[in-house]
Write a structure and sequence with these properties.
Blueprint: E1 12-13, E2 17-18, E3 23-24, E4 38-43, E5 46-51, E6 68-78, E7 83-89, E8 98-101, E9 105-112, E10 121-123, E11 147-153, E12 158-163, E13 176-181, E14 191-200, H1 208-216, E15 221-226, E16 229-235, E17 255-256, E18 259-262, E19 271-274, E20 280-287, E21 294-298, E22 303-308, E23 311-318, E24 320-323, E25 328-334, E26 339-346, E27 351-358, E28 378-379, E29 399-408, E30 413-416, E31 427-430, E32 434-441, E33 447-451, E34 456-459, E35 469-470, E36 472-475, E37 480-486, E38 492-497, H2 500-504, E39 508-514
Parallel strand pairs: 1-14, 6-9, 8-13, 14-20, 16-17, 19-27, 24-28, 29-32, 31-39
Antiparallel strand pairs: 2-3, 4-5, 4-8, 6-7, 9-11, 10-12, 12-13, 14-18, 15-16, 20-25, 21-24, 21-26, 22-23, 22-25, 26-27, 29-30, 32-37, 33-36, 33-38, 34-35, 34-37, 38-39
Length: about 525
């Protein structure tokens, strides 16, 4: 297939099939790469165009852009054959897809109709510190019945998402995709989809708060030690399993969720992607799960990985892809002829999320199918190098921070350098410095460590390869990972484990710029 002209595109959240009626909406019909007139916002009624810079007939070109409304409120949603009451943005699961061009301004009005205070964090965006959505650090939590106006420019193209930064609210339906397009990008695919992976308990199992309380009461089965730290598993009704073959280590999670979802749909009535044989699809994959890393594969296909956490890499083609909580990857797939399973294996949990790729007539694969690709080459961050245009390059490091990750499973207390939450002095940085972070994991569980407001570059010991640019990095048990970033976005920023239960148990700290 030839290279298409550089354009921006309208994407879609892949449409769920209606299994009971044997139907699936053709999500690709008439959907080709094209230039967007303005910002695109996906709502229950479809994509709505918002004129660039708020321009309307008769308005001045410098008018402020229209605000997106995000209503956080209780809602009833269908998880694919099972209806539950949960919390959502705008009554949708996932929440509205927000789409801008690089450099544009996003204005979003959060209206809180929840029975609890909340915020919106714009995950992965190097934005104005005041807009980062961390209560007690960048803003006050938005009380029930109140609102907050977020306004910031989006400096980097890529795949991002938004979610609250209060307690365990991400364990409900409060999340949605944010896509920043690069108008100069050369398009080499026919279609685009956004897939959001999630683990789910709200309304079908114990509440997230009940799970955390049980963990903190020692509700895990102790199964050994590593680095002085007890480990084991707690299940939301059933214990998770140990998998010695997992690329994350044998202990890959604390919570066995009742359901694992793709775009809010369970395997009972799965999300369906449709296309034609030979077409190429770009899939933007977002892991919003609280406690689950996924190993994703499409039966009968290979995955060409092109972006990590929004930033381009030197493309790598493998059979499956490992994606932890908070990470995002873009892949390209050349579609075969038939009906194929898209499986996101929940690492270490003997369960999986499931979707369908359909290019012709045929029977839908069984929801518990395990494609052979899952057991072949699993692409991980170790396989990835930054594309030249986004390589930070080598320069003297001004300061180094060592972060020792540890935990006590008996009390479910997770620490950085021996301190939980904000018990330690903030990590210092000064505008213009090159800062090195060295993560040392002394626990028996992996931690996806996420830095707000910046992206860093992975550095590998003894190698000159330009590691990928990321904002979330997996640190496996007893592993040391080194990253570097440029201190170019002043403020006070969170740095934490993106396992929601580890974060609630204390594994977070602060990066603070000095005058």
């Amino acid at each position: 297939m030839g290279t298409r002209a550089a354009t921006t595109r309208r994407s879609f959240l892949a449409v769920a099939g209606v299994a009971a009626a044997g139907l699936a909406v053709d999500a690709y019909a008439g959907h080709r790469p094209q230039r967007a007139v303005g910002r695109l916002v996906r709502t229950a009624g479809g994509l709505q165009e918002r004129p660039r810079d708020g321009a309307r007939e008769g308005s001045r070109p410098d008018s402020r852009p229209a605000a997106v409304r995000l209503l956080a409120a209780p809602a009833t949603v269908d998880l694919g054959g099972r209806t539950v009451s949960t919390w959502t943005f705008n009554g949708e699961l996932p929440g509205p897809e927000l789409r801008l061009r690089v450099g544009e301004v996003l204005r979003a009005r959060l209206e809180n109709r929840l029975p609890a205070a909340t915020t919106v964090h714009w995950h992965g965006i190097a934005l104005d510190n005041r807009m980062d959505g961390v209560p007690g650090l960048t803003q006050s939590a938005v009380a029930p019945g109140q609102g907050f106006d977020y306004e910031f420019s989006v400096p980097d193209p890529g795949t991002y998402f938004y979610h609250p930064h209060v307690g365990l609210q991400i364990e409900r339906g409060l999340y949605g995709p944010l896509v920043v397009e690069d108008p100069g990008e050369v398009v080499r695919y026919d279609h685009e989809a956004v897939l959001i992976l999630d683990d789910w308990t709200d309304g079908v199992g114990p509440s997230p708060e009940a799970i955390l309380a049980n963990l903190q009461r020692g509700g895990m089965r102790h199964a050994g030690q590593a680095g002085g730290t007890h480990h084991g598993h707690h299940g939301a009704g059933a214990a998770a399993t140990f998998d010695p073959t997992s690329p994350l280590g044998a202990d890959a999670g604390d919570v066995r969720h009742p359901l694992y979802l793709v775009n809010g749909r369970s395997p009972r009535s799965p999300t369906v992607l449709r296309g034609r044989p030979g077409e190429r699809i770009r899939i933007r994959i977002v892991n919003t799960a609280a406690d689950t890393a996924f190993r994703l594969a499409v039966g009968g296909h290979r995955l060409k990985v092109t972006h990590a956490d929004g930033f381009p890499i030197r493309p790598v083609t493998g059979d499956a892809l490992l994606i932890a909580m908070g990470e995002r990857y873009d892949v390209q797939v050349e579609l075969g002829d038939g009906v194929f399973p898209l499986v996101a294996l929940a690492e270490g949990k003997d369960a999986q999320a499931f979707a369908v790729v359909r290019t012709s007539l045929g029977a839908t694969p069984r929801a518990n199918v395990r494609p052979a690709e899952l057991d072949r080459w699993v692409v991980t961050v170790a396989d990835l190098d930054a594309a030249g245009a986004v390589d930070l390059g080598r320069r003297p490091v001004s300061r180094t921070h060592r972060l020792v990750l540890d935990g006590n499973m008996a009390t479910y207390r997770w620490t950085i350098n021996g301190h939980a939450h904000h018990g330690a002095a903030p990590l210092a940085a000064r505008q213009g410095e090159r800062v090195r972070l060295v993560f040392e994991n002394r626990s028996a569980m992996f931690h996806p460590m996420h830095l707000h407001g910046h992206t860093f570059q992975v550095r590998r010991a003894g190698e000159r390869r330009p590691g990928p640019r990321k904002d979330t990095i997996i640190v496996r048990p007893l592993e040391r990972v080194t990253v570097e970033f440029d201190a170019d976005n002043p403020g006070r920023w969170m740095l934490h484990c993106h396992n929601a239960y580890h974060q609630a148990g204390g594994m977070m700290t602060t990066l603070a710029y000095e005058p």
